[in-house]
C-alpha cells in the first residue's frame, strides 16, 4: 500500500526541516515544576496563567460535583444533557463579562467553529487578522463565507477591505491576545470600524480571560468597551484552570447558536461536574488581583533580564513572552539545551508561526516565583555566551 509510504515520506521531510511534532508525557499534575518522562522540569510552557489547574479548591469542587452529578452528561445539551450546573455557569459567565447571556462549548476550537459557521455563510464576508489562531482560520473556511485577510494589526487595511465590501453580513474575527506573539489586538479601533461599516466583531479572548481587565474580566474590560456588535468567546482551560469554553453575546445570537452551531448541537455536553469546578474558578479569578499583579511583576522581571540577549523578545506585555530565534533547528537546539538544564520551554515553528520566525514561547504563570524566572534568565544568558 503506497499510502503508508507516502505518509512516512512526508513525516521524514518534516523531521529534516525541523518541523516534526511529538508529545511528551507528564507524570505529575499541571504545575510550574512538572515531572516529564520521569524527570523534574521547571516549566514555562503552560497556559495555566493563574496557577489554578491544580488548585485545592477546584479539586474539591470537582470532587463534590462528581459526587452529586456523576461523571458524564450522557447526551447533547438539546436532548437531555443540559444540567443545572451548566445553566448556572452560563449565567455567571455572562454576568462576569458583561453580556446578556452565554453558551458553553466543550473547547475553544469547537466554540469558534460553531459560532462562525452559524453566523455567516455564502454571500457574507469574514475579515480576519493574518495571525489569527488556527481554529478561527478553520471556522471561516467552514462557514463558506468570503474571506478577506488583513496584515497583522493593520487597521488601515481592514478599513479599506470593509469599504470595498458592499453586500452581505460583515464579520471581523480576531484573537484578543495573539497566542504566539502575546500582543493585544486594537479592539477599540476595531469596534469603531464595525460601527462605521455595520459589521460584527467576534473576539477570541482565550489568552485574555482571567488575566486582563478589572478582576480578570478579560480584554473587553481591559479596553473599557461594550457593544451589542461584539460576540465574545473565551476558553476555560487556560487561566480558569479547568476545561471548556463559552460564547457570550446578545440573546438572539445565542439562540442562533443553539439552533445552528453544529459543534454545539451535535456533540455530547461536557460533564456537569466541570461546571461546578468552573463556578469555583470564577470566584478565584474575581478575587485574584494579587495573582495578576504578581504575574505582571514576573513579566517585567523577565523582559528586563533578557533585554541584552542575542535573541529578541517580541513586544508583549502579557504572560506570553516569545523569544524570536528565526531558524527552526536553532530553536529546537535552544529548547533542548534548556531541557538539559532542567527547564522546559517549547520551540514553536512553522506552520504555527510564519516561516523564518521560529521561537521559544515562554509563558509565565502566577504560580512561578521570582527565583523561577531568574533561573530561566540565568540559563539563557549562559547559553547565549
Provide a quick synopsis of the model:
This protein is an alpha/beta fold. It has helices at residues 2-16, 56-69, 84-97, 108-119, 134-143, 155-164, 187-197, 219-223, 251-260, 262-265, 272-286, 289-305, 328-340, 370-384; strands at residues 33-36, 39-43, 101-105, 125-129, 146-150, 170-175, 200-204, 230-235, 245-249, 312-313, 320-326, 343-344, 346-348, 358-363.
Describe the model.
The structure is a single chain. The protein has helices spanning 2-16, 56-69, 84-97, 108-119, 134-143, 155-164, 187-197, 219-223, 251-260, 262-265, 272-286, 289-305, 328-340, 370-384; strands at 33-36, 39-43, 101-105, 125-129, 146-150, 170-175, 200-204, 230-235, 245-249, 312-313, 320-326, 343-344, 346-348, 358-363. The N and C termini lie far apart (50 Å). The chain has 385 residues and is an alpha/beta fold. It is globular. The chain has two domains: 18-50 and 289-384, Aspartate Aminotransferase, domain 1 (Alpha-Beta Complex), CATH 3.90.1150; 56-286, 3-Layer(aba) Sandwich (Aspartate Aminotransferase, domain 2), CATH 3.40.640.
By secondary-structure content and strand pairing, the structural class works out as alpha/beta
- CATH H level, superfamily name of the largest domain: Type I PLP-dependent aspartate aminotransferase-like (Major domain)
Question: What is the count of β-strands?
Answer: 14
Distance between the termini: 50 Å
Total number of helices = 14
Question: What is the CATH topology classification name of the largest domain?
Answer: Aspartate Aminotransferase, domain 2
Helical amount: 40-55%
Report strand order across the widest sheet. Answer: 3-9-8-7-6-4-5
The biggest beta sheet reads: 7 strands, mixed
Could you tell me the mean pLDDT?
96
Order of helices and strands: HEEHHEHEHEHEHEHEEHHHHEEHEEEH
- What is the CATH-assigned architecture of the largest domain? 3-Layer(aba) Sandwich
Amino acid at each position: 500500500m503506497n499510502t503508508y509510504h507516502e505518509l512516512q515520506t512526508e513525516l521524514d521531510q518534516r523531521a529534516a526541516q525541523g518541523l516534526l511534532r511529538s508529545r511528551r508525557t507528564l507524570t505529575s499534575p499541571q504545575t510550574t515544576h512538572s515531572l516529564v518522562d520521569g524527570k523534574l522540569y521547571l516549566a514555562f510552557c503552560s497556559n495555566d496563567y493563574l496557577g489554578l489547574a491544580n488548585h485545592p479548591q477546584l479539586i474539591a469542587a470537582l470532587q463534590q460535583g462528581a459526587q452529586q452529578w456523576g461523571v458524564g452528561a450522557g447526551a447533547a445539551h438539546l436532548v437531555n444533557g443540559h444540567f443545572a450546573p451548566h445553566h448556572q455557569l452560563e449565567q455567571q459567565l455572562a454576568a462576569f463579562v458583561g453580556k446578556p447571556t452565554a453558551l458553553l462549548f466543550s473547547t475553544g476550537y469547537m466554540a469558534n467553529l460553531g459560532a462562525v459557521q452559524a453566523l455567516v455563510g455564502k454571500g457574507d464576508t469574514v475579515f480576519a487578522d493574518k495571525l489569527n489562531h488556527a481554529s478561527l482560520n478553520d471556522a471561516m473556511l467552514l462557514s463558506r463565507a468570503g474571506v478577506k485577510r488583513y496584515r497583522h494589526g493593520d487597521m488601515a487595511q481592514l478599513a479599506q477591505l470593509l469599504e470595498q465590501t458592499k453586500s452581505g453580513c460583515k464579520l471581523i474575527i480576531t484573537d484578543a491576545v495573539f497566542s504566539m506573539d502575546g500582543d493585544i489586538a486594537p479592539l477599540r479601533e476595531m469596534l469603531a470600524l464595525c460601527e462605521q461599516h455595520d459589521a460584527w466583531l467576534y473576539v477570541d479572548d482565550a489568552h485574555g480571560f482571567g488575566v486582563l481587565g478589572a478582576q480578570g474580566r478579560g480584554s473587553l474590560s481591559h479596553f473599557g468597551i461594550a457593544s451589542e456588535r461584539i460576540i465574545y468567546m473565551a476558553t476555560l482551560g487556560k487561566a480558569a484552570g479547568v476545561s471548556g469554553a463559552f460564547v457570550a453575546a446578545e440573546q438572539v445570537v445565542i439562540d442562533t447558536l443553539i439552533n445552528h452551531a453544529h459543534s454545539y448541537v451535535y456533540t455530547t455536553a461536557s460533564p456537569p461536574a466541570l461546571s461546578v469546578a468552573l463556578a469555583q474558578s470564577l470566584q478565584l479569578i474575581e478575587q485574584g488581583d494579587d495573582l495578576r499583579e504578581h504575574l505582571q511583576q514576573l513579566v517585567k522581571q523577565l523582559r528586563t533580564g533578557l533585554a541584552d540577549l542575542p535573541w529578541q523578545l517580541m513586544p508583549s506585555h502579557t504572560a506570553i513572552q516569545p523569544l524570536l530565534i528565526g531558524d527552526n533547528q536553532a530553536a529546537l537546539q535552544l529548547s533542548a539545551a534548556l531541557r538539559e538544564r532542567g527547564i522546559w520551554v517549547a520551540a514553536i515553528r512553522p506552520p504555527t508561526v510564519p516561516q523564518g520566525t521560529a521561537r521559544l514561547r515562554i509563558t509565565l504563570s502566577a504560580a512561578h516565583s521570582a527565583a523561577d524566572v531568574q533561573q530561566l534568565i540565568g540559563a539563557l544568558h549562559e547559553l547565549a555566551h
